[in-house]
Specification:
The structure is a single chain. The termini are far apart. With 182 residues, the chain is α+β, with helices and mostly antiparallel strands. The structure holds iron/sulfur cluster (SF4) (2 copies). The site of one iron/sulfur cluster has 13 residues, from helix 3. It is an enzyme of class 7 (translocase). InterPro entries: 4Fe4S_Fe-S-bd (IPR017896), 4Fe4S_Fe_S_CS (IPR017900), NADH_quinone_OxRdtase_chainI (IPR010226). It is a peripheral membrane protein. It catalyses: a quinone + NADH + 5 H(+)(in) = a quinol + NAD(+) + 4 H(+)(out).
């Protein structure tokens, strides 16, 4: 049987019994911190600076002409690891956009469940149309599960319009601007 060693507790000194050394040490830390620059923010009055390429809430964006860029190819829905995206493909209104209606589709419904989303950014990476972007929105709340599902309207409200880099529908105009018109 192992022998048990009993350790005697050292008796407190007079100073230790008054707790004064501990209080002085604590106050020293407090006062030295008061002179340093704060590292916390008074949120929500103060907001942090969001770095470029921050992965916030996923949103849908339109091109500078107000056209829906998403063609409801469903690649993002397929690639999304937690299956947060649900798309119902639809047609483009032929009367409103006759030049596009016979060549492209647009989502009839597009939902992103923010209770499932893990902000991985794979939807943005896979999108061939540069239509979905994780922007700088980081605080999202709701009172019910339903409120945490962003539908197509909300996704466009959050996303807004971004500059179009590949001029899918304005190739001629872009070529003219760069002096490459035929
Ligand atoms: S960021 Fe990731 S988890 Fe969220 S919707 Fe996109 S692919 Fe899905
Ligand atoms: S957001 Fe992009 S990847 Fe997703 S359905 Fe639309 S076009 Fe396809």
């Amino acid at each position: 049987m192992a022998k048990t060693k009993v350790l005697e507790r050292k008796p407190l000194s007079f100073a230790e019994k008054t707790f004064l050394p501990q209080i002085v040490t604590g106050l020293k830390t407090t006062f030295s911190s008061m002179l340093q620059k704060g590292v916390t923010l008074q949120y929500p009055e103060e907001r942090p600076t969001i770095p470029d390429n921050y992965r916030g809430v996923p949103t849908l964006v339109k091109d500078p002409n107000g056209r829906e860029k998403c063609v409801s190819c469903q690649l993002c829905e397929f690639v999304c690891p937690p299956k947060a995206i649900r798309i119902t493909p639809g047609a483009i209104d032929a009367e409103a956009e006759p030049e596009r209606a016979h060549v492209e589709k647009a989502p009839q419904e597009f939902d992103i469940n923010m209770l499932r989303c893990i902000y991985c950014g794979l939807c943005q990476e896979v999108c061939p149309e540069e239509a979905i972007f994780l922007q700088d929105i980081f605080s999202l709340s709701g009172y019910s599960r339903e409120e945490m599902i962003n539908n197509k309207q909300k996704l466009y409200e959050l996303g807004g319009t971004l500059p179009d880099k590949h001029f899918k529908w304005d190739k001629k105009k872009a070529a003219e601007a760069t002096g490459n018109a035929h």
